[in-house]
Amino acid sequence: MTQVDSRPSAVRGDVFSEDLVLPDPEAWNSLPPGPPTAEQLKLRRTGLTDTERAAVLDQLAAHLEYKRDHLLGYQVNADMGGYAEDLGRFLRTHINNIGDPFADGGLKVNSKVVEQAVLAYFAELWHGKPYAPTDRESCWGYVLSMGSTEGNMYALWNARDYLAGRRLLGEEGPESTSLTYADPHDATPDNPAYQPVVFYSEDTHYSFSKAVRVLNLPTFGEMGRGRYPTECPINGGVWPDDVPSALPSGTDRDERYSTFGPGSIDVDALVAVVDFFAGKGHPIIVNLNFGSTFKGAHDPVREVADRLLPVFHRHGLIDREIHYGQGRRSDRRRGFWIHIDGALGAGYVPFLARAEKEPKYGYTPQVPVPEFDFGVRSRFAPHDAEPVELDMVASIVVSGHKWLGAPWPCGILMTKVKYQMQPPSTPDYIGSLDTTFAGSRNGFSPIVLWDHLARTSEGKQVSLAVHSQRMAAYLVEQLHKVEAYRRLKFAEDSLFVDRTPLAITVRFRRPSARLVAKWSLSTVSQRMRPGDDSGIRHLAHVFLMASTTQEKVDAFVADLYAYDAFDAIDTDTELHRATAALADTPFADRGFA
Q1: Host H or E run for residue 338
Q2: In 306-376, which ranges are E strands?
Q3: Counting Cβ atoms within 10 Å, is residue 332 exposed (0-12), middle (13-18) or buried (19+)?
Q4: What percentage of the chain has pLDDT greater than the value 70?
Q5: Quick one: average pLDDT of 100-118?
């Protein structure tokens, strides 16, 4: 450790110390190795010599290792857990899990038996039943080749076709020709509308904006402005793009806090807009976030489910009749679908729930650890009718490269057998139905996920989840010390330090471009007051993943004491003007997939 005595240090209580102790600058502040140059990387028809190729790979490895060691702004677990040593042998084989994970298919070089074991683990972790083809309540899913973006896309596709009345897996007969999207103005209990409407909060990941466009699914804001321009039940009658979320603390607007704090969905607003469209005869798709991208917020799934069940009952969406084909064959299905985007939170929150119940972990959460999975059952007792009790969650996704720590993007999508749709085509040559989105799928990912879970006991998972919570609380404490120091030393204003309860991300004022680059920070610009450029906050966040050490946090915090660690707040600067427009851009803070 190197003592730095050129300026005061952290605050101890309300007292400054004159002997700030920082990490060894040789370890954390050495010049980063740059990536290979374009000239070095240029590929020739003759190929590169072994010496040239080795030099490029060595330089690239050194560059990426430095960036990995200074990565704080994105929700990536940097602990690869010995994958290279344990699993390198599988790189000698092309492993392709094409088609349904529970059907072996024609391509025998696959890891589907491993995939099935991983899926069974997550079904049980999420309070579901492992896959059994004859049990409609059991869980079906597959390991994604992309991150949760692929899972979100697949879930919305499945939800759209299920709610539009298309054929379920195994149903006989041709695809329906009568299931056109009925005009909601003409919808009655005997002639329901088949056009689903999508609802998600303003903190939802940007992949949903892509998915609804690809799938031609209208959001409630889009349909409201087009069909019911003066009838919005919230927001002063003006249809917003998304359901409002709770706001960061300290804003001038009315703060909408659910139990789970800034960034979680405004449940009252959601119920109001869902009730409006359900009353018009529309089936409903609701996405709830579980670990939102920037604030790490968890939508209160249990509260939403309990509040929406009476709405669905009132509008006939619990047991809805649909009609097929020329002969008007009928079927009965639900008219709603609740999807959980648990890209981050679905990986670690189950272990926080275990820590909450077991005193040996010494963990007391800020708020009760929320339910979010297939175990969420809501009960409703209508007047003069039999009580209704339903499982409410239809699908869940989680990313494999976030909490779990796979070395490339992957993830898991899970739904239930009773919701599976007939694939659009049945290609004989792959030897199985392709019930997935991707077709050819990465067969290495299930092996990596299995290896991680095989090496990591439940007790260790719980300990890692608690460690991340403690590191997040520690960073908040250290940032407040930085804030106090900079206010005294440089007369600077607030650092806007904020953390949503249970989140493993901490938000604060954006540091200088130098530190943003050094620590790979994710940044956004948010307008706190409509139309007021002086109310724009330029923010960054840090993710305290399981692999983040206190030493790394201390090294980052030490950088924030430097006189030039933050740019001056000046509404006339070119940087401020350039980001003012971005502050109004939808999905500006919904980054990493």
Answers
A1: strand 336-341
A2: 320-324, 329-333, 336-341
A3: exposed
A4: 80
A5: 88
What was the pLDDT predicted at 290?
94
Q: What is the spatial distance between Cα 152 and Cα 339, in angstroms, rounded to a whole number?
A: 8
Contact 451, 87 (CB under 8 A): yes
Contact in structure between 258 and 216 (CB atoms under 8 Å): no
Average confidence (pLDDT) over 198-221: 91
Q: How far is the CA of 20 from the CAs of 7, 10, 23, 30, 175, in angstroms?
A: 7, 7, 10, 20, 71
Alpha-carbon gap, residue 8 to 583, rounded angstroms: 35
| Interstrand relation of 336-341 and 284-289 (parallel, antiparallel or unpaired) | parallel
In 130-233 the beta strands, taken as DSSP E runs, fall at 139-144, 197-199
> What gap in Å lies between CA 286 and CA 292, rounded to an integer?
15
E strand spans, 354-481 = 377-380, 388-391, 395-399, 411-416
What is the rounded distance in angstroms from the CA atom of residue 143 to the CA atom of residue 134? 21
The widest CA-to-CA distance across the chain, in whole angstroms, is 86
What CA–CA distance (Å, rounded) separates 35 from 53?
Answer: 14
Kindly report the CA angle at 78 between 72 and 82, in degrees rounded to 5?
A: 165
- Please tell me the distance from the alpha carbon of residue 156 to that of residue 213, in angstroms, as a whole number: 11
Angle at which helix 267-279 crosses helix 301-314, to 10 degrees, equals 20
243-289 residue pLDDT tens: 998 765 555 444 455 566 788 999 999 999 999 999 998 999 999 99
In whole angstroms, give the CA distance from residue 204 to residue 155: 15
As a whole number of angstroms, the distance between CA 141 and CA 34 comes to 41
Q: Please return the burial class of 201, using the count of CB atoms within 10 Å of its CB with bins 0-12, 13-18 and 19+.
A: buried
Cα–chain-centroid distance for residue 364?
24
Q: pLDDT band for 209, please (50, 70, 90 cuts).
A: confident
pLDDT at 188 over 50: no
In this structure, how many other beta carbons lie within 10 angstroms of the beta carbon of residue 80?
A: 16
Return the number of other C-beta atoms located less than 10 Å from residue 60's C-beta.
15
Instruction: Tell me which residue has tokens 């946090």.
Output: 553
The pLDDT tens digits for 439-497 are: 888 999 999 999 999 989 999 999 999 999 999 999 999 999 999 999 999 998 889 99
Cα 333 to Cα 158: distance, rounded to the nearest angstrom? 14
Tell me the pLDDT tens digit for each residue of 7-16.
Answer: 334 444 444 4
The answer to whether 501 touches 260, Cβ cutoff 8 Å, is: yes
Q: Which pTM was predicted?
A: 0.86
Average pLDDT, the chain: 83
pLDDT digits (tens, 9 = 90+) for 502-541: 999 999 999 999 999 999 998 888 766 554 455 678 999 9
Give the span between the Cα atoms of 110 and 20, in whole angstroms: 56
